[in-house]
TrEMBL record:
Record Pfam families: VPS28 (PF03997)
Lineage of origin: Eukaryota, Sar, Stramenopiles, Ochrophyta, Bacillariophyta
PROSITE patterns named among the record's database cross-references: VPS28_C, VPS28_N
SUPFAM superfamilies associated with the record: Endosomal sorting complex assembly domain, VPS28 C-terminal domain-like
Span of domain VPS28 N-terminal: 60-167
Protein name (database record): Vacuolar protein sorting-associated protein 28 homolog
């Protein structure tokens, strides 16, 4: 009888261990991070195979024992908020992928695409800081949850601005765009000169500058300001929001912005 009791206790421990998740942070529903406020209850499972009729006399009343344990997906409100933040980041990346596909199929207009894309890029920058830990990147997050979103990765992690589209504009619209571009150049260069080096400080400024440059009509494909600003924007998009560029990179960024601004003014004089 003692051997039977020990055997049953070992079976109980084995079953309990097999149902406990190894890491709450990797618990998923399908391919989506957990995003609910409920606990996951384990189904009642028998502790042994009851098909053997001859063993009933040895088990006695223990035949009715079942494992009825509840495993919580989070232990406190902070962990619960972490799941919510990851789910929001997942939704933003997925929405960007669908937006890019819709625009490629000409299912939405240019204005609709630009408005929604700018909104998603802004939301992505905010949510990235809240959802990911210090040592986790967006690429790792997408790999963990099997996110096959190449268009979203290109737009959010590399480009950082909506797809440009140069169209003929009225003289008033061009004048406004030129004024905005000059303003963004000066603002970004002043920020670098004041030794702002954090990615989450510089990236929005470069993104606004890149957006203004791409709205200029009749610019050549090899327009130097576009090339230099895009290069730095892609470099910053590969870093975490809390990262900072080095002093050497800061000096190089200011130099590239200064030369890009000079080329931009020469372009205006030629026009």
């Amino acid at each position: 009888q003692n051997e039977t009791v020990v055997h049953l206790l070992l079976q109980r421990q084995t079953l309990l261990t097999s149902f406990l998740p190894s890491s709450p942070s990797h618990t998923r529903i399908g391919r989506t991070p957990i995003h609910n406020t409920h606990n996951t209850s384990l189904k009642k499972m028998p502790l042994w195979n009851r098909s053997g009729s001859g063993s009933g006399s040895n088990h006695g009343d223990d035949d009715g024992d079942v494992l009825d344990s509840t495993v919580s997906l989070y232990r406190n409100s902070r962990e619960r908020q972490g799941y919510d933040d990851q789910a929001t980041l997942y939704a933003i990346i997925l929405a960007t992928e669908h937006l890019e596909r819709a625009y490629a199929r000409d299912a939405i207009t240019q204005d609709e695409y630009t408005t929604e894309c700018n909104k998603l890029i802004s939301q992505f920058r905010l949510q990235e800081k809240a959802a990911l830990s210090n040592n986790q990147s967006v690429e790792e997050f997408m790999h963990i949850y099997d996110m096959d979103c190449p268009r979203a990765a290109e737009r959010l992690l590399k480009m950082g601005v909506p797809e440009p589209m140069n169209t003929a504009s009225s003289s008033d619209a061009v004048a406004v765009t030129v004024a905005e571009t000059v303003q963004h150049f000066i603002t970004t260069m002043d920020a670098v000169k004041l030794e702002q080096r954090a990615v989450d400080e510089l990236q929005p400024l470069l993104s606004d500058l890149m957006d203004a440059l791409t709205r200029l009509p009749e610019t050549p494909n090899d327009f130097e300001p576009n090339f230099k600003v895009r290069k730095w924007l892609q470099k910053l998009n590969e870093l975490r929001a809390m990262d900072e560029i080095s002093e050497e990179d800061s000096r190089q960024l200011y130099h590239d912005l200064d030369s890009a601004y000079a080329e931009f003014t020469r372009y205006l004089k030629r026009k």
